[in-house]
Write a structure and sequence with these properties.
By secondary structure, the chain is of the alpha/beta class. The protein has a single domain, classed as 3-Layer(aba) Sandwich (Rossmann fold). An 8-stranded mixed sheet has the order 1-2-4-3-5-6-7-8, sandwiched between helices. Helix 1 packs across helix 11 and helix 4 packs antiparallel against helix 7. It is globular, with a radius of gyration of 18 Å. Keywords: Hydrolase. GO terms for molecular function: hydrolase activity. Pfam families: Abhydrolase_1 (PF00561). This is Alpha/beta fold hydrolase.
């Protein structure tokens, strides 16, 4: 999971709830400072067991570049409700339909720069395949061409098995014990550590299990996306210098197959948005500027 670098909202950022045709969605909104023109709009989609706060570090820098930006909790994530016992409710078409409903509410009739991190990148890719004309651009952040690497598949299967017999609190306790056994300590900021615990407990178990299955069974849709690129969709592949879920070499190969740029954020691993937010925001804004 991604760990936000901080939790206090910058002056340009506010927390909201959007009432859409598909229910309520919690989101953060960043607007350019007073008097600064809006040059475009972005929607940021978090990854597996993540949330809108994963993007808290990039929101203000993007707003100060003139962009209106939304970061949301997907259904079943943190502060956005989701069905508790209906795996089909988390099927990919449902998640894509949620994105369109959010955009219909927050940015109707406006092409949007769509950014998906990790699992959110798979959802964003599906949205781009579904309706590329609705997008100004697509950024695949720390997202691979297909299912995660084998070591992560094994971890996901363990998690799915655990969720079938244990509560979220019990699974959390087990994960923290594994961390302790490996010498890993809780986050040094008690507020962030408490947030991570609260966010985990607020997730829908059915949503976690369904998402885990998608991560380990995702087909390679790079050729289909390449056809959208050939038809005019602007795409950026962005990664850290290292990645435990999809090797950076896989992501570089995805960019090559798409015929698009692969931007590597130095000093970042799987979550450049949280680990190197200033550099990540600059890379996104530079790409978005070039699209206009």
């Amino acid at each position: 999971m991604s760990t936000p670098p901080f939790l206090d909202l910058p002056a340009t950022v506010r927390a909201h709830r959007a009432t859409t045709a598909r229910g309520e969605f919690a989101y953060l909104a960043a607007d350019p400072p007073d008097g600064q023109a809006v040059v475009g709009t972005g929607l940021l989609v978090p990854g597996f067991t993540g949330g809108k706060e994963d993007f808290i570090g990039v929101l203000d820098p993007l707003a100060r570049r003139g962009y209106r930006v939304f970061a949301l909790d997907q259904r079943g994530q943190y502060e956005t409700p989701g069905p508790d016992a209906a795996p089909d409710a988390y099927a990919r078409p449902e998640l894509v339909a949620d994105l369109w409903a959010v955009l219909d509410t927050l940015a109707p009739r406006e092409p949007v720069h769509l950014v998906g991190h990790s699992f959110g990148g798979l959802v964003a890719r599906s949205a781009a395949l579904d309706a590329p004309a609705r997008l100004a651009s697509l950024t695949l952040m720390s997202t691979g061409p297909a299912a995660v690497r084998d070591t992560e598949t094994a971890r996901l299967l363990m998690l799915e098995d655990a969720l079938a017999v244990a509560s979220l609190q019990q699974v959390w306790d087990a994960m923290r014990q594994l961390d302790a056994d490996q010498g890993l300590r809780p986050h040094r900021d008690p507020a962030v550590a408490a947030y991570l615990h609260q966010r985990w407990l607020a997730n829908s178990p059915a949503g976690i299990a369904a998402t885990a299955r998608q991560l380990r069974t995702e087909p390679d849709l790079t050729d289909e996306l390449a056809a959208r690129v050939a038809a005019g969709l602007r795409v950026l592949v962005l990664s850290g210098a290292r990645d435990y879920a999809w090797p950076v070499t896989w992501q570089a190969e995805t960019a090559r197959r798409l015929g698009v740029r692969h931007l590597v954020v130095d000093g970042a691993d799987h979550s450049p948005n949280a680990e190197q937010p200033e550099a990540t925001a600059k890379g996104l804004a530079d790409f978005w500027d070039a699209v206009h």
